[in-house]
Every structure is written in structure tokens, then in C-alpha cells.
Specification:
This protein is α/β, with parallel strands linked by helices. It contains 14 helices and 18 strands. The strands form four sheets. It has a seven-stranded mixed beta sheet with strand order 5-4-13-14-15-12-16, sandwiched between helices. It has a six-stranded mixed beta sheet with strand order 7-2-1-11-18-17, sandwiched between helices. A hairpin with a 4-residue loop joins β8 and β9. The longest helix has 20 residues.
Length: 416
């Protein structure tokens, strides 16, 4: 009896010791990068908590892509089939004129441009990642970090609503406007405006909407987009070139007024989208920017995804960078006992990839936002040539392994 009791206590003590030796990580942000990081950290033996300032999982948002290396990561996570099942159904992108005549067409299956193989609403992907992690990861909603005190061997975290807690590491994964990043790095990271404002919203679907995304250029460097979703509505967006006028700081009423003024005479579906603007509950208006940070870690704190290296929505790689970065950061933390070595290895692997993605093609965003009618005609003509069958055949003949090279811009380590 005494032997059995002793054995039981010994086992309990051993298990408690293992539990206590688990490194604890606090992740700020429950969108894409945060839950992906939490998934892999948990798999590699960390005790993970995710804090999200929203009162519940944010299910809104526009279409995002899971491309190339990120697709490999979600395959490793066993989530590719779930993401594919939640696909928006988008068939590709068509460039049209004011009369809705198609000037160029890039189908999903035949082009690396535009629609990705895995096209999904941001909220749907966030929900998939949340459900894949909630059993092994602690989630705190309706709260945020207000103070970080790196004490050398641990980080004391003060929350807005909950009691202070101690963690071994803290990771910012809460987007381009990350408040956690500022607590870690102050004003060191720079948010670089690239010269275009953009607004996203959800509008009612009408009978003429189909499964294609549409791009329309209006004179004055203005663009309108519509895209299908899988929930019976249509996703729309406005974008326009502009100096940095601080529009993102205005309240929603004034932002709506700016959009109405800018697009009142734009043509095509502008009247329809502007009419829906007042009723839409998910209007998002911001200046399109990149995050440029000279370092991604500071002591026991680090950052990943848009908080660290937002590439802008125009790159089509924001979500993919978040997924790949989260995988590599978690893997290096699992591989190294010393967090500083892990952070260094993470940055060494990811920074060339990030710099490649952030190096937007020459002329972006100006080429895609022609100012004059002649410029729009030339833009559409160039796209028409690029989308032609002859050009596609020539590209396949002379392109060689271009597509393979594109998918190997960063080598994904095999973490075990």
C-alpha cells in the first residue's frame, strides 16, 4: 500500500515537473498568424495562451489567398481540405470597362495571377485555425496587453481586464496597427505608406453577380472591385491614389463621405456599391502600407505576420507570409533551447523571403491605377495581351521551371 502510494506520488511529481518545465508563450492576436503560431508551438511542447482584444472571434473580412509555401504549411497542419471546402468559389479575375465588356481574363486554373487555388474569406480561415487549436491553446477574448516588463528570465504582462501574468515569451501577431509591437519596439518599426487608400465592404448579391472577380478602372486613378463569396453576398472594394491625408484616422461617417465624393462619377457599379455603403456593417478604410522593421525580436519578445512585415494586400501574400512566418518561428523556438538563438534563426530564414515579397513590381500601385482614359485603354490592352492564349503557350515553352522557383523562395525546414 505504501509502495503504491509512493509510486503514485512519484509519477505525479514527475508529470508535474514536466508540466512546469514547459515554456509558456503569450501570443497577441487571434486572426491568422496568432492561431497558426499557437498551433505549432503547442505541437512542439509549449504552453500557449492567445489574447484577442475583440470580444469574440472576428469572422468578417475579405478574400485572402493561401499560396505556395503557405499551402505546404497548411498541408502539414492537416487543414488543406477544410480550407478547400470553405473556398469562395472564385473562378478567376476579369478586367472590364464601364460597359462591363471584358478586356482581360485570368482564370484560376490557368494563371499564377489573381485568384489562388486556395481562396478563402479571412474570417473563415481564422475560424478553421481557431477550431484546430482551441483544445490545446488557452484563448482570452475581450482583453489586450497594456504593459510588458521583460525581466530577463521572464516577461511580466499587464492586461487591460485580467490580472497580470508571467510568461517566458511574448509574441505580437496582431496586425499592421499592432499596439503590442509598440510596447516591444516603440517607434522603431516604420509603417511605409505606398500611395493608395483602400476601402473594403460587403454588399448584397444581385442576380447578375457570378463567380468571377471583377476589376474596373475609372479615370482619376480609381479602381472598383467585386468578388464572390461563399455566404450569398458580394465583397467589394474601392481604391484610389492619394497623398497621405490621414483619412484612416477619420470616423466612419467622414470616410463614407470621402468615398462618395471620390467615386460619385466613377461609372460601372459605383452607384450600386455606394448605395450599399451606408448599410454595410463591415466597412474598412485604410491607407495601404508596409511594415518595415530592422529587427523582429527584442529580448524575450518577438513579432510575426503583419505586425512584423505586412507586405500590403496588393502583394496577395499577406496571409501566406503570416502562415509561413508562424511555422518557422514556432519551429525554431522548438529546435533551440535559447530563445535568442531561435529568434535569430527565424529572422535569418524569413527576412530574404519577406524582402522579396515586399519588393513590389515596378510601377505598383501607379500602373494599376491609370489617371487618364488613354492610360486605362493602354492598361487594359496590356492585360489583354498578357491573358491571351498565345502568350500563355509561349510562356509555358520558355518559362521552364519558373513556377517551381516561385514556390521555393523560402526553404521550409522539417521541424520534428
Amino acid at each position: 500500500m505504501y509502495y503504491n502510494t509512493y509510486l503514485t506520488l512519484s509519477i505525479a511529481s514527475f508529470l508535474f515537473k514536466i508540466y512546469m518545465e514547459k515554456r509558456t508563450v503569450l501570443v497577441s492576436g487571434a486572426s491568422i498568424a496568432g492561431p497558426t503560431l499557437a498551433f505549432w508551438l503547442s505541437r512542439f511542447g509549449f504552453e500557449v495562451t492567445v489574447v484577442e482584444r475583440a470580444p469574440e472571434l472576428r469572422l468578417g473580412g475579405q478574400n485572402i489567398d493561401v499560396r505556395d509555401e503557405a499551402q505546404k504549411v497548411v498541408q502539414l497542419m492537416g487543414l488543406e481540405d477544410k480550407i478547400r471546402a470553405a473556398n469562395t468559389g472564385e473562378l478567376g479575375i476579369r478586367f472590364v470597362d464601364a460597359a462591363h465588356r471584358i478586356k482581360a481574363e485570368f482564370p484560376k486554373a490557368n494563371s499564377d495571377f489573381g485568384t489562388a487555388e486556395l481562396e478563402i474569406l479571412r474570417g473563415d480561415l481564422a475560424q478553421i485555425l481557431y477550431h484546430a487549436t482551441r483544445e490545446n491553446v488557452g484563448y482570452i477574448f475581450d482583453d489586450q496587453i497594456t504593459v510588458l516588463e521583460d525581466q530577463g528570465n521572464q516577461v511580466l504582462v499587464t492586461f487591460k481586464n485580467n490580472a497580470p501574468r508571467i510568461f517566458d515569451l511574448v509574441i505580437a501577431a496582431d496586425g499592421i496597427r499592432s499596439t503590442t509591437r509598440k510596447l516591444m519596439f516603440g517607434d522603431e518599426p516604420q509603417i511605409k505608406y505606398i500611395g493608395v487608400y483602400c476601402s473594403y465592404l460587403t454588399i448584397p448579391r444581385i442576380e447578375s453577380d457570378d463567380e468571377w472577380a471583377y476589376w474596373y478602372n475609372a479615370p482619376g486613378s480609381r479602381v472598383l472591385n467585386t468578388r464572390p463569396d461563399n455566404v450569398g453576398t458580394t465583397r467589394a472594394s474601392f481604391s484610389f491614389l492619394s497623398p497621405d491625408n490621414g483619412y484612416e484616422k477619420l470616423d466612419l461617417v467622414k470616410q463614407r463621405e470621402i468615398l462618395k465624393d471620390k467615386f460619385a462619377d466613377a461609372g460601372w457599379q459605383a452607384p450600386r456599391i455606394l448605395k450599399a455603403l451606408d448599410q454595410s456593417k463591415d466597412v474598412y478604410f485604410d491607407r495601404i502600407s508596409q511594415v518595415k522593421a530592422p529587427r523582429w525580436s527584442n529580448g524575450r519578445c518577438a513579432m510575426v505576420g503583419d505586425a512584423a512585415y505586412c507586405p500590403t494586400p496588393m502583394s496577395g501574400m499577406g496571409a501566406s507570409l503570416s502562415i509561413v512566418g508562424a511555422y518557422i518561428l514556432a519551429g525554431e523556438l522548438g529546435r533551440h533551447k535559447n530563445h535568442q538563438d531561435a529568434f535569430e534563426a527565424y529572422e535569418k530564414l524569413m527576412r530574404p523571403f519577406v524582402e522579396d515579397i515586399q519588393s513590389l513590381p515596378p510601377g505598383v500601385p501607379w500602373v494599376a491605377h491609370p489617371k487618364t482614359k488613354l492610360g486605362i485603354t493602354l492598361f487594359n490592352a496590356a492585360l489583354g495581351i498578357a491573358s491571351s492564349r498565345l502568350v500563355k503557350k509561349i510562356s509555358k515553352i520558355f518559362g521552364g521551371n519558373a513556377k517551381k522557383d516561385l514556390k521555393e523562395r523560402v526553404k521550409l525546414p522539417n521541424y520534428k
